[in-house]
Amino acid sequence: MTPNGAVIFGFVIIAGALVARDVVSLMVILAITLIFAFGSRQRIWSALLWSTGIVLPLALFMGLVWIGIVGRAPHEIAANVEGSRAAAAVYTAVICLRLFIIAFAIQAAFLHFPGWTPLRFVAALTAPQIAKKLLVLTLSLIDTILQAVDRARTALIAAGIITRRQSWRNLRPGWILVQTVWLTVVTIAIGRTRDKWPVEDTLARLDRTLGGAAPRLGGADFAWAALAIAGAAMALGMR
Amino acid sequence: MFTTPRLVAIALCAALNFAIGNIVYLVKLPIYLDSIGTILCALLIFPDRFAAIACAFIAGFIGVILSGLVINPFLPWFTLTVLAIALVSALLTARATETFRARPLPVPAFAGKVILYGVITGVVSAIVSAPVVVYLFGGVTGSGSAFVVAFFLKTGQQLMNSALLSGLATDPIDKTLQVLLAGLLYRATPREFIAMLAPPVRSTT
Amino acid sequence: MGEFIAGANFSGRSAALMARLRERAPAFFIGPYAEAALSGLSSTVADEIAIYRSANSSRPAFAPLDFPAYAARKPPTLSGGEQVLLALHCFSRSDYAAIGIDTALEQLDPGNRDGALAYLSRGAAHGFTAALIDNRLACPPGWASHELTGTTADFACDLAAIHAAPRAAPAIGVHDLSFRYPGGRDIFRDVDLLLEPGRAYRLTGPNGIGKTTLIKLLAGVLGPTAGALTLDGGAYAPWRSGNRVFALATQNPDHQWCGATLAEDLARRRAALARHSVSLPSDEELAKLASCLGIRSLDQHLYELPLVARKRLSWLWPLAGAMPWIMLDEPTLGQDRPTRAALADAIGRLTAQGHGALFVTHDDAFAARIDHRPLRLANETVLS
């Protein structure tokens, strides 16, 4: 499978999940997504767990708000009828299932590229060069920020301002952490932009790495796309 | 318009949106804090207004796309809100850049501008977001503001009104906090970085 | 042929190096700290190498580390020395015809440093020229030396004027200490150690062995997987109770600031340590100390200082004497010989007054000036 094929599959599945209105059609789309995940021949448990981890707090939260507090579904509110908790439960299930499909489809797509680095993946996408460059830059800066958070924590702990242990007291210097992270990362960015990149012409190297024709769509891409389109069509038909 | 330092600023601000926004989303507070980077980007690139709008929007857009992929599938649908925040930040909030960087800090002027521009950003954001919240997500997006929506629903408001009222109740507070944090970060940013983001010099020969 | 640019701090060496590289652009550049060594465009070590690798490059690869084993790691998670080695490896796989290194080799242990120098000295055979700034080395044989003599008084420092008050520091006991990063190998296993006050200790070991990790454990930044620390025999768990013993100067000075300005940084430390009943010197005394380190105003924006000045300012917290023990992680990076010697003497004066000191350095000359005990890290333990 190619990254472009994975993106196409993802878009179609997400579109299908959005047009699906009821639990049955969403289950059909979920089934297609599961087949897609199994088709990667990788272990899918971590993808399932991750998607569940994102949606479960939401499900509990929505259950509390919609079923527990509001007690009726949006269409019942709009129609000004008394409504029922059962309808609210169905509504909650639809929203959560839809989100689970979206999250899982994305994770499943990544399963098809085990061992691929972010740079290799982005390079194989069909997109404007500047968009690919920005994406690579942002991904690596996210890593830099996460490292800067770690360094800032070290600074604050060493200075006695926070402790390593989880503590409400550690929330108060949250602003110091944010400020320190920002300043660290900006300083790194200044150094690269002023010195390293101009003299090396590093961004031109990135262009060369990201450039080149993306791999053409193959049989696997078309097959998965066809399956996704079938699922989305079914969902549309069941509205 | 897109010089290398500006590309770096966009990526930095997108990464900031991603990092802070996702922490807050996971904690389920009725605030977002996911546009600090967008606002900051506009402040950094001001007074080049058009570039400020473009760069702030792109920073916000990348942030919501990446967050959507990794942790919060709701976010990419609020792209129009991102545009609205970028516009307000570049055209209005950025007028306060001199105040934000003044030393010593003029506290009343600083606080006044933060509140004014924060409320305006919040109101605009709430109005632009309400239709998305209602039509795509039925009023609940998984952020803590859903409790506020539920409250209004319980008091008998229709869904669109509830979403709008919820947004108007929480967004101005959230955006004021974001303008405050963006302003403070802008204040702390080294001069050299801001100077790098000035418009490219055009050769006149 | 290689060019060695010599001179004191602030004589214009970095500017001269950059000018050289711009003449020969595009040229590979490795700056003073880890973040300035790498491209900043990659999320993994494999991607970093991929960005620079050229099919046209015929020179032998410089590979002192097993880079395939590092392939999936994120570059910022490597140690400072490892990042410099990665940068050199990327250069060796590229087709750049010139390389400039601004004091980055100072972070390498002797073995890796000699290997790097040997590789760089073969530039003529492998089709590249090298320019080097290094405060530890003399001009390598066969290289051209370019001496700069200018200077500025802007950041002139006077370390000889720094004296600490007498202090009764506690003894630090390390008992059966074990540590492993989540999902990683053991860094330490059952380490026992006694750090006595009034003494200086030098941590040595190859790049990536765990010197900074030990420092973080003592400061409470990391928590051990097993074992305990004691303070004068009593239990001490800084990872729970917070650090109130060590004043830390980090390898990259930007990793220890707690504010945008010096005044903000010191105010926050003061407020935090007041909770532990640790009192700081007054603002006047700290301003005088900052002035000895070349900084004339407490309102100085920390990140707008030149790197060499920021590094010197990173010594302020340890030399202030507020904490009984000081830890310095590669304190002399980027500093010329007279400044290194003066810092060594200042540390000696501190320990003579009863403070304890722990330092990491690859600079043998600097270490030799301090009366110290070596602690060698090897095989997941610490040998004294």
Count of DSSP strands of chain C? 15
Name the average pLDDT of chain C. 90
- Helix-residue proportion of chain C: 25-40%
Count of DSSP-assigned helices of chain A: 10
Would you report the number of β strands of chain A?
Answer: 0
Structural class of chain C: alpha/beta
Radius of gyration of chain A: 23 Å
Residue share in β-strands of chain A:
under 5%
Number of helices of chain C: 14
Fold topology:
The complex is a heterotrimer of chains A (239), B (205) and C (384).
Chain A: H1 3-19, H2 23-38, H3 45-70, H4 74-78, H5 85-111, H6 118-123, H7 129-158, H8 174-200, H9 202-210, H10 219-237
Helix pairs in contact in A: 1-5, 1-10, 2-5, 2-10, 3-5, 7-8
Chain B: H1 4-27, H2 36-45, H3 49-70, H4 79-91, H5 97-101, H6 107-137, H7 145-154, H8 159-188, H9 191-196
Helix pairs in contact in B: 1-2, 1-3, 2-3, 2-4, 2-8, 3-4, 4-6, 6-8, 7-8
Chain C: E1 3-7, H1 13-23, E2 28-30, H2 45-52, H3 67-70, H4 80-92, E3 98-102, H5 110-121, H6 123-126, E4 129-133, E5 144-148, E6 172-180, E7 186-195, E8 200-204, H7 211-219, E9 226-231, E10 234-236, H8 238-241, E11 246-249, H9 262-274, H10 283-292, H11 307-313, H12 316-319, E12 325-329, H13 337-352, E13 356-360, H14 364-368, E14 372-378, E15 381-383
Parallel strand pairs in C: 1-4, 1-5, 2-3, 3-4, 8-13, 8-14, 11-12, 12-13
Antiparallel strand pairs in C: 6-7, 6-9, 9-10, 14-15
Helix pairs in contact in C: 2-4
Characterization of the model:
Chain A is mainly alpha-helical. Helix content of chain A is 76%, strand content 0%. Chain A has 2 domains: 3-118 and 215-237, no CATH class; 127-210, no CATH class. Chain B is an all-alpha fold and 205 residues long. Chain B has helices at residues 4-27, 36-45, 49-70, 79-91, 97-101, 107-137, 145-154, 159-188, 191-196. Chain B starts with a helix and ends in a 9-residue tail after the last helix. The model of chain B has no long low-confidence stretch (mean pLDDT 84). Chain C has 384 residues and is an alpha/beta fold. Chain C has helices spanning 13-23, 45-52, 67-70, 80-92, 110-121, 123-126, 211-219, 238-241, 262-274, 283-292, 307-313, 316-319, 337-352, 364-368, and strands at 3-7, 28-30, 98-102, 129-133, 144-148, 172-180, 186-195, 200-204, 226-231, 234-236, 246-249, 325-329, 356-360, 372-378, 381-383. Classes of the chains: A mainly alpha (239), B mainly alpha (205), C alpha/beta (384). Chains A and C meet through helix 6, helix 7, helix 8 and helix 9 of A and helix 1, helix 2, helix 8 and helix 9 of C.
